Amino acid sequence: MQEKILILDFGSQFTQLIARRVRELNIYCEIHPFNNFPALDESVKGVILSGSPYSVRQEDALHYDFKTVHGKLPLLGVCYGAQYMAHFGGGEVLPSSTREYGRANLHFIQDGNPLFKDVPSNSQVWMSHGDTIARIADEYEIIASTDSVKVAAYQIKGTQTYGIQFHPEVTHSIDGKQLLQNFLVDICGCQQDWTPDSFVETTVAELKEKLGDDKVVLGLSGGVDSSVAAVLLHQAIGKNLYCIFVDNGLLRKDEFESVLESYKHMGLNVKGVDAKQRFYDALAGLSDPEKKRKAIGRVFIEVFDDEAHLVEDVKWLGQGTIYPDVIESVSVKGPSATIKSHHNVGGLPDFMKLKVVEPLNTLFKDEVRRVGKTLGIDPNILGRHPFPGPGLAIRILGEITPEKVDILQQADAIFINNLRAAGVYDKVWQAGTIYLPVQSVGVMGDERTYENVVCLRAVESLDGMTADWCHLPYDLLAKISNDIINNVKGINRVVYDISSKPPATIEWE
Ligand code: XMP
């Protein structure tokens, strides 16, 4: 049985980061919302309560009966989690006299406490709270303090329940990783055996068991997630996996051919489908970004459905869904407004009535890459920048025509090849070229030109949620601009996007 740690989410922005840190220690963990916590079984080795934007003093504070875990399994409350157990365990939480935010040092650490093994005195920690634990009940004892926070950490005496008001998961808490390791390995007794290799081994065995001789169809996109999902499924069921890779006419230059080739090299049973014209027809006359996205989503489903019907007796749809897409998040400020109707073209049309198999739905993106590496997938596929499902359609502002796609593909290939040649491709999180519906005057030789403008966009980011524009070297930008203007007919001006997200987004549409 796969041992695991459960993280109870009270809506903190850091909850996923706690999960990442646990997994970096090769320990499997799952995040669950505070009001939908699964039953504890033998596989659960310990529980972590997350932070929260709420205050335990608020009338609508988020409640969880921590006694369900306390005394039965090791329990660690972080920030709100710690304040919650202190307050509802007979102590008192009050607003801090000054907001405790930022770095502090643990000037007191209880000698020999297992949670602080190998954490030196004065270790720097990172605080972020507006409330503080003012008083603890008699059966609680203080095990660490900073100058301004007396109860920086406590233990319920004689038990394996701990609370810490600082955040061990952020890197500003210098020994945070050590503390988590102490909790997870020494206190919870986790084995640290959850590695990419063990993931592959158990997942392939589970898939074999689940799928038996059934057939599975899967849409490949050329991206990391669908590729890794396909290879895992392939290892489990071989030729019973039918992959479909659709050319929607909105991919990068030569991408369809080269990616198809690498899929074949990997031994996948893959069919390339040229559906360019169907997409161009559906896009004709559309310039509103949302309408373009919807049209592409609709045609993709039609094409995919046509192809899937050619596979006799297919029972399953394979998908490369990853963990961040399935974590049931605690909604703190209500459902966020739809900014773009994003993610992901495809999905399951109701009428297909297939069961869904998602072998990556417990992994974060970087873990998918590591699993991909273990599976021996082409580094060119694993290292590829994210690319939106609607492809170049949302990088051509306004109406799409095959001519504009062709021009953009040429300019974009020059941009990307130059990033590769200069050795900066892997340092950039995502890069692309945007075709602007703007013409400007230029001069080439003695001729006046009146042609289009393209914009280069390169960003640094961790997850696409926020991003900053990359400070690419001027010389490199100059070379790219020259190469594009000299080689791509129809473009006489190149600009660089220096907006960060927020307030801009990564894509222009
Ligand atoms: P934005 O533009 O919202 O993009 O800052 C964040 C990330 O999402 C990608 N993106 C999409 N991916 N379908 C997708 O599959 C879409 O409609 C879509 N729109 C944006 C974008 O490329 C970036 O990585």
Describe the structure.
The structure is a single chain. The chain is α/β, with parallel strands linked by helices and 509 residues long. It folds into three domains: 4-187, Rossmann fold (3-Layer(aba) Sandwich); 196-382, HUPs (Rossmann fold), CATH 3.40.50.620; 397-496, GMP Synthetase, Chain A, domain 3 (2-Layer Sandwich). Helices cover 30% and strands 25% of the residues. The protein is built from 13 helices and 19 strands. It has helices at residues 15-24, 80-87, 176-187, 196-211, 224-237, 255-265, 276-283, 289-309, 323-326, 365-374, 379-382, 402-421, 474-487, and strands at residues 4-9, 29-33, 44-49, 75-78, 92-105, 108-109, 124-135, 140-145, 153-156, 161-164, 215-220, 241-247, 270-274, 314-318, 355-357, 430-444, 447-460, 468-469, 491-496. The strands form four sheets. An eight-stranded mixed beta sheet has the order 2-1-3-4-10-9-8-6. A five-stranded parallel beta sheet has the order 13-12-11-14-15, sandwiched between helices. Strands 16, 17, 18 and 19 form a four-stranded mixed beta sheet that branches. Strand 9 and strand 10 form a beta hairpin. The longest helix has 21 residues, at 289-309. It starts with a strand and ends in a 13-residue tail after the last strand. 40% of the residues are buried. Pfam families: GATase, GMP_synt_C, NAD_synthase. It catalyses: XMP + L-glutamine + ATP + H2O = GMP + L-glutamate + AMP + diphosphate + 2 H(+). Pathway: Purine metabolism; GMP biosynthesis; GMP from XMP (L-Gln route): step 1/1.
